[in-house]
Amino acid sequence: MREKSALRRMVSGEGEDKIMLLISFGTRPEYIKIKPLLSVLKDRVEYKLLFTGQHEDLLKHISGSDVERMRIGSSGNRLDAIVSAILSQERAPSFENVSHVLVQGDTTSAFSVALTAFHRKIQVIHLEAGLRTYDLENPYPEEFNRQAIARLAHINLCPTDLSAQNLANERVSGAIHVIGNTVLDNLVGLEPSYENKVVITMHRRENHSSMRDWFEAIDRIASKNKNLEFILPIHPNPEVNKHRDIFKHVQVVEPMGYEKFIELLAASRLIITDSGGLQEESSFLRKKSVVCRKTTERTEGLEHFAILCETPDLLLAAFEQINADPVPNSSVACPYGDGHASSRAARIIQDDMGMNRGRGL
């Protein structure tokens, strides 16, 4: 690990070393995954929050003067707009007097903030590091984002041994730690049941061109399984939302708050999704899922908790396979963590920032 003195590059106006953590998030999934870590870090590490505004319509419930908010302008290309807005930080105080920046996952916000920190020689901490498909088109643009962040990161906080091995194989320069996935910390104590509910989420950019086909396949399945209640919290992206009228046998609802959604998830029989995080949450809650993607970076759960469905015409067979046997083997542990990742992450961050001062977690 690099010398401690190299970590203290940002100097305050009084000329003293300033040890400050900037925690960035831009989407609801990012916020959900950093939220348990914030609770652990409170009163232990000096930090401030930056909301980049990538999914502002999903985060209206987050308030408080301690969160700095950015505005992302309009552009013909949304990804360009996100990158340019975040890199144009000369007029904003976000990165002033900061020694470390934490980014979560693989969004364009995370990549842009990590690059901005790197340009200012600020140490980058990557939460949920090392996930890989090694296919830049799947998921797009996330696979590029997370590979790029790995080249900049000073600390890589990995959810699994496989993600850590990916980084070791890539010979990244930053430290590598396996901590589990922090999203599971939100679910500790939640008791699962198996009601006749099928939860559906679909939103990924690489599925936009085939979203109509996916929705039609799901609706056909729902029409043949009227004993089950199919529920789709619709994603607000226009490329998803414009197809909502396809459904005749699926209950389409507006986006839910996280607490309400995980209660629904905990009560479900099974899941149909193209989400990454939902594969982790469903596994922890002992649910099986059909993953509607060409590939997945979360291969650890495929044998026992999930089945990969590459195209809409394969969905019926995949659904019938897990619907016939929806409960995972009780002897197989969730491969993505035990619900205590935030405490492990906090110890590592405190140690690197030199802020332990004898306090345990």
Give a nutshell description of this structure.
Helices cover 32% and strands 16% of the residues.
Poorly predicted tracts of residues? 1-15, 356-361
Mean pLDDT comes to 90
Tell me the number of structural domains.
2
Strand content: 15-25%
Query: In the CATH classification, which architecture of the largest domain applies?
Result: 3-Layer(aba) Sandwich
Strand order in the largest sheet = 3-2-1-4-5-6-7
Descriptive labels:
single chain, 361 residues, alpha/beta, Rossmann fold, seven-stranded parallel sheet, six-stranded parallel sheet, 11 helices, 13 strands, 16% strand, globular
Please render the helix and strand layout as text.
Blueprint: E1 21-25, H1 28-41, E2 47-51, E3 67-69, H2 78-87, E4 100-104, H3 108-119, E5 123-127, H4 142-152, E6 155-158, H5 161-170, E7 175-178, E8 197-201, H6 211-224, E9 229-233, H7 238-241, E10 251-253, H8 258-266, E11 270-273, H9 277-284, E12 289-292, E13 306-309, H10 315-323, H11 341-353
Parallel strand pairs: 1-2, 1-4, 2-3, 4-5, 5-6, 6-7, 8-9, 8-11, 9-10, 11-12, 12-13
